[in-house]
Specification:
The protein has 649 residues and is an alpha+beta fold. It has twelve helices and 27 strands. The chain has four domains: 180 residues, 2-Layer Sandwich (Beta-Lactamase), CATH 3.30.450; 149 residues, GAF domain (Beta-Lactamase); 120 residues, no CATH class; 107 residues, Elongation Factor Tu (Ef-tu), domain 3 (Beta Barrel), CATH 2.40.30.
Length: 649
């Protein structure tokens, strides 16, 4: 595999004529040193010193290509192009008095697009015997094209008399000086850019250290006056499309209507109108109008040099910085670049500080102004369509009427609910039902322990028999007083017996009605003591229900008896059931920080087997028609009225 760094050998047999043939290299080629050429140490490529030539690129390129071409005997012409891949410009030619041959420029163009040296053979353009050896070499720096070198060498003795690879390597070695020159230039540019960024960050730090915009502006202009050796630095901020002077260096206050202030603001407006830096005297690289800057420069008895840069902001120019210093110290390109870098970082900071310092009315006015500008401008059609749609929607809400429904939480209860309580103190013996069971009237719910009741009945029966026997004996003896006494004892004993029988009968707790067992589970309490009157079971019928609406006190005024509504239960969200309000109780109950009133309603249609007591859901009571704008906004309006009344003196 061929090395990418090896020369690419082509033969445009006179590139101008278009005939191509392979170039000859190999063992038979003659080494340039053996052919009388100077090596790297003799031709300026190795240890010989290359002067800086006062930093001028044109002089450096001229000297450099002269040494490159003179180091290779037989070189007839050479050219060096400097720039980028998109734009390569001639930097120097050798000999300087003659234009570079067309073939040389074409081989240079070919080398600019290649990653290795280009070698081509061509017939001599002057008609003499021999060939021309064209060598093109692209010089790259940091992965990008920096320059292109191309030379043409006369080879009178034929192809085998010279080694093109050695000549290309010799040229490549000599490019070290050019590479070093270009690297130093980039390093100086990067160092200058870093220095400018450092100074700009220092100025931004000075501005950020102040909380008030006026103090930040004063600190900035004073710092810039010291850093840039200026006699006066001015800062103006843009408000409402006009520039207003905000701060002057080394001045605590100034007259807004003074002659100097007017001249400075005119210079700032001139810079702002052109949106570019302006200097007076103007730099050679710029052609901008500087009439106001000239007037500012000659305003004082001692002429000065002036310059202005724009401070960009997030939504347009934020302001302008204007500099003045002695005329014998004019502004150069580096100073202007430093001022531009400072302004680029300083503009957003000053704009944010100024916006934060404004009162609420000013911010609201800016927001309204920006909104109206966007709404009435030529762009943003989607915003205009959205605004039109909003206006039409509000108009429709003010005209169209709809049903206003009060939304409440709802609970389903049995219309008649019976309770089974403990008839006397005792213990649980048997429990046969659990909540959710369907019951019929007379079904056994639970049984209490009747052992003591049986003994009590037996004792009462024995007492009754004993008293009856004594009564019979007294009657047989015609003992009327005794008979009357024993007769009363018999009645008492019969009453005790009847009571014992009643307790035994009531020890079996049965369902009083047909329905569903809502609550009560004694299956886990067998043998547990019970107190008389304690509720043990609750039974509700399955065909009669009522709805309890938990209505907020703010909506109670809209609910009246006889209104209709719809109920949606959580367990059956798709099943909507109609109801009618039957009763509004005047008792409030505090829940979740609000007062709720109990409103009762009944279902309009038979409930069906799917309903169960205790189900919850959402109910909506239809209270009448109102404008839609009122339906959606009356709650907020009522709250505002109440709050205003609360704080009203």
């Amino acid at each position: 595999m061929r090395d990418r760094r090896a020369p690419e050998i082509v033969d445009p047999a006179a590139i101008a004529t278009g005939s191509m043939r392979p170039a000859a290299t190999g063992p038979g080629a003659v080494n340039p040193a053996a052919a009388g050429q100077r090596g790297p140490g003799q031709g300026g490529h190795g240890t010989e010193w290359m002067p800086e030539l006062d930093g001028r690129d044109d002089a450096f390129f001229a000297v450099w290509i002269d040494r490159q071409c003179t180091a290779i005997p037989g070189t007839r012409a050479g050219v060096i192009l400097h720039g980028t891949m998109d734009r390569l410009l001639p930097a120097a030619a050798w000999p300087a008095a003659k234009p570079a041959p067309v073939e040389l420029l074409r081989i240079a163009e070919r080398a600019a697009n290649a990653t290795r040296p280009i070698i081509a053979w061509a017939r001599r353009s002057d008609g003499k015997h021999g060939l021309d050896l064209l060598i093109g070499l692209g010089i790259r720096l940091h992965g990008g094209l920096a320059a292109v070198l191309a030379i043409v060498v006369d080879v009178p003795d034929g192809v085998d008399s010279v080694d093109p690879d050695a000549l290309a390597a010799q040229l490549h070695m000599g490019c070290g000086w050019l590479d070093a020159r270009l690297s130093r230039g980039e390093a100086r540019t990067a160092a200058a850019r870093i220095e400018r960024a450092s100074v700009a960050m220092d100025i931004v730090a000075v501005a950020s250290a102040q909380r008030r915009p006026a103090r930040a502006a004063a600190a900035v202009v004073n710092e810039l006056a010291i850093r840039l050796r200026c006699g006066r630095v001015s800062l103006g901020l843009v408000r409402g499309g006009a520039i207003r002077l905000k701060a002057l260096s080394h001045a605590a206050s100034f007259d807004q209507r003074g002659r100097v202030v007017d001249a400075i603001e005119n210079a700032m407006e001139e810079c702002l109108a052109q949106s570019a830096p302006i200097t007076y005297p103007a730099l050679l690289t710029t052609t901008r109008i500087s009439v106001a800057h000239r007037d500012l420069a000659v305003l004082d008895p001692v002429p000065t040099a002036t310059a202005s840069v724009v401070l960009p902001g997030p939504d347009g120019p934020a302001g302008v910085l204007t500099f003045e210093r002695p005329a014998d110290l004019p502004f150069d390109q580096d100073t202007v670049l430093l001022a531009e870098a400072t302004g680029a970082l300083l503009g957003p900071v000053l704009r944010i500080q100024a916006d934060n310092d404004r009162i609420l009315a000013g911010r609201v006015a800016d927001g309204l102004r920006d909104g109206m500008a966007a709404l009435l401008g030529h762009d943003k059609p989607s915003l205009k369509l959205a605004a039109l749609a909003a206006v039409l929607a509000v108009a429709a809400l003010c005209v169209v009427q709809g049903e206003y429904r009060v939304t409440t939480r709802a609970v389903l209860e049995g219309k008649v609910q019976r309770a089974a309580v403990a008839p006397f103190d005792g213990f649980v013996a048997v429990s046969t039902v659990r909540p959710g069971d369907h019951l019929h009237a007379g079904d056994l719910l639970a049984a209490m322990d009747d052992h003591d009741l049986v003994l009590e009945r037996a004792r009462a029966w024995a007492d009754a028999e004993k008293s009856r026997q004594k009564y019979n004996e007294a009657m047989a003896k015609h003992d009327r007083p005794g008979a009357a006494e024993y007769s009363a004892q018999v009645d008492q004993a019969d009453a005790q017996l009847a009571l014992a029988d009643d307790k035994l009968r009531r020890s079996r707790i049965v369902s009083p009605i047909d329905g569903l067992l809502v609550s009560g589970d004694l299956s886990q309490m067998l043998g547990a003591p019970l107190e008389r009157g304690k509720t043990l079971f609750e039974i509700a019928p399955l065909d009669q229900y009522r709805i309890i609406l938990r209505t907020d006190e703010r909506d109670l005024r809209f609910v009246v008896q006889g209104q209709h509504g719809m109920l949606s239960l959580a367990g059956m969200p798709d099943d909507r059931r109609s109801f009618t309000v039957t009763r509004i109780t005047p008792i409030a109950e505090a829940k979740d920080g609000r007062n709720e009133f109990r409103v009762e309603a009944t279902l309009d249609n038979p409930p069906g087997p799917a309903l169960r007591p205790g189900m919850e859901g959402i109910a909506k009571v239809e209270t009448g028609t109102h404008h839609l704008i009122w339906v959606w906004s009356h709650s907020l309006i009522d709250w505002l009225r109440l709050t205003a009344w609360k704080w009203m003196p």
